[in-house]
Amino acid sequence: MTSGTADLREALPADGRREAPDYPIDGAAPQIAQQPRTREELAGLLASATEAGLAVVPQGSRSALDLGRPIDRYDVALDMRGLDGIVDYEPADMTVQVGAGMTLRALRAHLAEHGQYLPADPPPGDDVTIGGLLATARPGAWRGHMPAARDLVIGMEVALPDGSLVRSGGRVVKNVSGYDLHRLHTGALGTLGVIVEASFKLVPLPPATRSFAVRRPSVRDAARLAIELRDAALPGRALSVLAPEAAVRLGLPDDAHVLLELAGYESALDAATTRIRDVTERSGGGLGDAPSGAWDALRALTGATDGVVLRLGVPATRIAATIEAARGLRGTAWGHVAAGSVVIHAPAIDVTSVRVLRRNVEAEGGFLVVESGPPALRAVVDPLGASTRDLVGALKRQFDPTGTLSPGRWEVGL
């Protein structure tokens, strides 16, 4: 332990100390680990670390630490789970203010008592923290059907590397630099500042949900049916195309499938079910109930940390071809029609294959993100794409010029 980290450790509250070996990232452990209990303690830690030239990596449920490049330095693990309470909740106004360390599962349980929820389904599941949900901005099957979490944020408090606490409130409040604060930090992986609290606009909890699976002879047939269902104006919350390998992982037969979730009032779901049955019967498919837990299993697959997980943005009309290409990589894949995305999970994918996939999707205006993979792959293949890297890189130089927060996550030195 260096003198700088030793001094910082002694200056921090003893009851917030954690065992550093419990916080490895890419095989490396920090010198110290700390779990602040107050915003002031968090701000002080950042200010002291910046002054001492130490690298701090914020983390919550630790479910997305493969997102981005391998970090260059790792001195301090900042465990945000100590800031985990509901700060303010007004059911009548349908707004909630919550600490960044609270899990989505705990928040859901509290809001459900009042018939409300935050419509977010990030991978790998509801045990993600609210801060992690925003910092990673990882989409799930609901994307395209429901607002993105960042679009529901109406306020945010962020701790900057110099120890400043910056707060926004309301839909259009901006910080002193002229940026929309919550959009600035959503998806930045905690590299510009550390989200302390967030306020959300909520939506009513659907009175009922139904999930269906439709078996199809090929991925292309499944994709055609899914697009037809998308255009049928259904009260859908998720609509996905599964390769046979993905279907098996969800407890379905070894064939391509369409997986569909409806949400709303029972009367609306009854009418929608009739329309879905008509469409599927015309196409030669049979409508059946999806296995219990199918959507949770799909979220877990999306957030898997074994092997390689890629997320590709493609037009809905290219979902089938992209899934078929993934099967050639000895992996499995599934696509979300409303969002125009395909997720690929494979035991291993070589650098050349990733670059070819990226070149092909970018030629059609799409993108490729390496959601998870070994450090050797993430070090040589830009995991997040050049356009995003360049944008965040410019902001990183302004907000964190000393490279305190997760240095190297976007590129070497950033």
Observed structural traits:
4 domains, five-stranded antiparallel β-sheet, 19 strands, Alpha-Beta Plaits, Uridine Diphospho-n-acetylenolpyruvylglucosamine Reductase, domain 2, eight-stranded antiparallel β-sheet, alpha+beta, globular, 24% strand, Uridine Diphospho-n-acetylenolpyruvylglucosamine Reductase, domain 3, 414 residues
Can you put this structure into words, describing what you see?
By secondary structure, the chain is of the alpha+beta class. The protein has four domains: 3-81, Uridine Diphospho-n-acetylenolpyruvylglucosamine Reductase, domain 2 (2-Layer Sandwich); 83-204, Uridine Diphospho-n-acetylenolpyruvylglucosamine Reductase, domain 3 (2-Layer Sandwich); 208-297, Alpha-Beta Plaits; 301-373 and 382-389, Alpha-Beta Plaits. The chain is 32% helix and 24% strand. The protein is built from 14 helices and 19 strands. It has helices at residues 3-11, 39-52, 104-112, 130-136, 149-152, 181-185, 219-230, 244-249, 266-282, 294-302, 319-327, 351-363, 375-380, 386-399, and strands spanning 17-18, 32-34, 56-59, 76-79, 86-90, 95-99, 116-117, 153-159, 165-169, 194-201, 203-204, 208-216, 236-242, 256-264, 287-289, 308-313, 332-336, 341-346, 367-372. The strands form four sheets. It has an eight-stranded antiparallel sheet. It has a five-stranded antiparallel sheet with strand order 5-6-10-8-9. Helix 7 packs antiparallel against helix 11 (319-327). It is globular and about 70 Å long. The protein starts with a helix and ends in a 15-residue tail after the last helix. Residues 170-178 have low confidence and may be disordered.
